[in-house]
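Entry 14: structure prediction run for XK-related protein. Input pasted below.
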Amino acid sequence: MCEVAMEEHEREISDLDPQEGPAVAPNGGLVVVVNPSRVHAPFSVVLATLLYCAEFVTAAVLCGMYHKTDDVIWMGFTITFMLLPAVLIQLALTFIHRDLGRDRPLVLFLHLLLLGPVIRCFEALVVYFKAGKKEEPYVTISRKISLKKGQGPMELEVGQSERNLATHRNAFKRTAVIQAFLGSTPQLTLQLYATIQEKYILPTRLALMIITMISITYGALVCSVLAIQIRYDDYKVRLRPLAYLFMIVWRGLEIATRVTVLVLFSTALTHWVILVGMANLLLFFFLPWAEFWARKGSLPENMEKNFSKLGNIVVLSMFTLLYACINIFCWSAVQLDLSHGELIERKQRWNRLAIYYCGRFVENFVLITLWYFFKSDFYEYVCAPLLCVQLLICYSLAVLFMLLFYQFFHPCRRLFKYNVHDCLHCVCFRRGRREQRGRRGEPSYSTNATMVLTHDEPLELLDPQNSQIPDLASQLGDRETAIVTDMMEAA
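Run finished. Output tokens:
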């Protein structure tokens, strides 16, 4: 875990802008040595702290209102979803900053009062405003590869202030994810369900739902950005504003649709929604462990020096629980590898992405169909078929914005071996070829990569200039590649 945190520091530090001229490396590449005279403001730290405080205070006020009206069930669940992420955030901040072995009684006392994010945000702001006022000692150099044309590797000189801010940023990224998927998502689901059951909207409850929706969207956005930074750790990653916009729309539609479907289904079949939620939780919780046991891997030993093997298992279980909670509501953007030191698999698995969204679309369709047939009389003034269609369209739009992001706005799309357009083109081409062969009754090819040409074969396929087969040869399998080679030799 320590090595993961150190690498996260370098990922954050790599966002600095070049301030000095380039220098030529010995191997002929371009190396830019950067002197970080300008330190970036910790906006992410401030935003995560504001969301934490706003959600905590609003939930506390709503609990007071539930207490006055004797709504014991709503009050109990609201307190649970308010305190659980708060306690886990205090533990995460204490663990990342290693405060247990340091003499900082005031900070530990504030953590006991659930005010850890506030004091950490204050510390980050103090570091930012003090940066640049005096010369800082050299700390380390982070080497990154620029994706811009005409630029090579970059060496970034890192000062003590920027390194401390990187520690705070990485800590608050983790707290934002914990807050979003262990607190905000169940809180939003609960309050929306309570609103439908009580058939009226409280202003405080509405404010809490809006805050939790913003927190969830921000947490999902952090997951996507962290996944990109982890997979392309050697590159200097910089997202454009339009990329953030597409990611926000993608994540917002995906989460809003998922929460609405679960709430509507719970109003019709209350007890069955528990089975659906537990099935999703257990599936995504045990999936990384099943892959770990199938690979016959060993647990990483470098998570923490003071941890025993049992402590490592507990930390991994909590990490897997967070991963499962994320996947219940949206795509986590990463796959876990419990045998690796970073716990994250760097390889992009497009088949996992396709299976997840296809399966989630089918599940949403089944749940919303069951709600349509078993809905209560409360929805008699609601056009239920139109609502079902709108939910499915919203989820389809979320998938569409995701595909557009990967195709046009992903910062490392130049490094993709295959992109969305290539996959769709290959699938459509193969389907068109199969339909064309079925209509013409063409003979099938044998397993020895031999081919029989008939008179019905189009002459364009024998012309290398008019054919697109050489361009697609790299995308086909070994057997199909051999077939194309024979065709070219025949031409």
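Notes: Strands lie at 22-24, 30-34, 140-146, 153-158, 235-236, 335-336, 344-345. Will compare against the previous run tomorrow.
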